[in-house]
Amino acid sequence: MQVPFTLFLAVIFFCVSEACFGEPEGVSRVLGSGSCATSGCHGGAGLGKGAYNIWKHSDPHDKASATLTNGQSTAIAQKMGIKSAADSVSCTACHAPMKNVAPSLLMPADQGPAEDKDFSCANCHGGAEKWILSHTRPDYPRAALEKLGMRPLGNAYQRANACVACHQNLSNELVKANHPPLIFELDGLLVEQPKHWREDEDFSHVKTWLIGQAVALREIAAQTLREPTDARTAEIEAIKELLAASGTGWDRESKTDLVKAADDFAKRVSTAPMSTTQARTALGLLLQNRKPFEISAFGTVAEDHRMRAVGHYAERLALALDRLNQSLIAAGEKAAFAEDSLNELFIASPPPKSFDVDITENFVRKLDAMTAVNK
Predict the structure, then answer these.
(1) Is the domain of 145 the same as that of 255?
(2) Using CA atoms, how far apart are residues 219 and 259, in angstroms rounded to an integer?
């Protein structure tokens, strides 16, 4: 079976990608996660030293492979003609990526360690053979560490690149097999994670949300070039409308390469300051935008998928309002609306494929009520 390219990326990206690391000086092989767990490093106590224990015992990624043996995965595997989801690269690429790492990429002493059979620190941070000693030096340039194979994760754009392949894209084959739909919303995902990292002083929830949406758009656009479907076009148009409606600089009429345009936008946002005033403005603009709910909305989408585009927009809008509202609260400012009203909006937003005229009208009523409170 041919492995979808986006899933293939999830397996190999952590060790050899020149796109992120410039020109790596050869392959930095994978050390076992035990190499990070000593008391003097990330397994000890104190600021920054408990990272290993938080990741190992609380981070959901370490348990991702457990879903491969449940009934839903068994049913998906059967529809795909796979004997076992737990042994198929189409599934383990995201749920247990260490199973797909070639022995030649593992340090000899760590080949097949029990604690790393499914996930390892390397899946996000890169094989540490060449940089494990240097990365503790405060005077060692970050760019040099990247050339040695350490994946940069310091800003939202870098994190989005690390997460999006497994958290957004599904091949046509997986969609037809009824794999649950995925929606990439970076800020919410990071907030839900038990943090084994420290945020920089200039960290911004709204910037993280915005970059996540742009990178999601980039990935869906790239996948559409490989596997075009009307359903993906509906999601693309929904995200484009969301970005444009937020007033953050997305060019609604851009005719350029969408993959490049979305990536350039994400990069530009990642290097620009983002104030709470901008967050409140974006929130207000999104609350007031009713264009996606008009009869003429999403005219470029196939007619039988236009309501799905409305559903995608509504789903991402509810998530956007949540993250923007939380960004105000985190900054010590007054919330734009009460959490109860947002919960009602989420309830009014079923999966995009379920959207119809009645659901749309109910969603807009909830949105109108929130808009009235925010004035």
Answers:
(1) no
(2) 7
Q: Are 371 and 336 in contact (CB under 8 A)?
A: no
Nearest to 101 by CA among 90, 114, 112: 112
Query: What is the total count of domains within the chain?
Result: 2
Per-residue pLDDT tens digits for 12-23: 333 333 334 344
Question: DSSP characters for 201-220?
Answer: TT--HHHHHHHHHHHHHHHH
Do 128 and 167 belong to one domain?
no
SS3 356: coil
CB 186 within 8 A of CB 215: yes
- Whole-number Å distance between alpha carbons of 66 and 95: 8
The DSSP secondary-structure symbol of 284 reads H
Closest CA to 219 of 236, 238, 205, 203: 236
Is there a single domain that holds both residue 148 and residue 161? no
Note the pLDDT tens digit of each residue in 153-188.
Answer: 999 999 999 999 999 989 999 999 999 999 999 999
In the listed set 152, 171, 202, which residue is the last one of a domain according to the structure?
152
Q: What is the pLDDT of residues 211-270, one digit of tens each?
A: 999 999 999 999 999 999 999 999 999 999 999 999 999 988 777 899 999 999 999 999
* pLDDT on residue 47: 63
Residue labelled with tokens 């390469």: 257
CA distance 113 to 288: 54
Range of the domain at 107: 1-152
Q: Within this chain, do residues 166 and 131 fall inside the same structural domain, yes or no?
A: no
Is residue 49 within 8 Å of 60, Cβ to Cβ? no
Same domain, 187 and 39: no
- The residue among 152, 177, 192 that closes a domain is 152
Statement to judge: residues 306 and 225 lie in one domain: yes
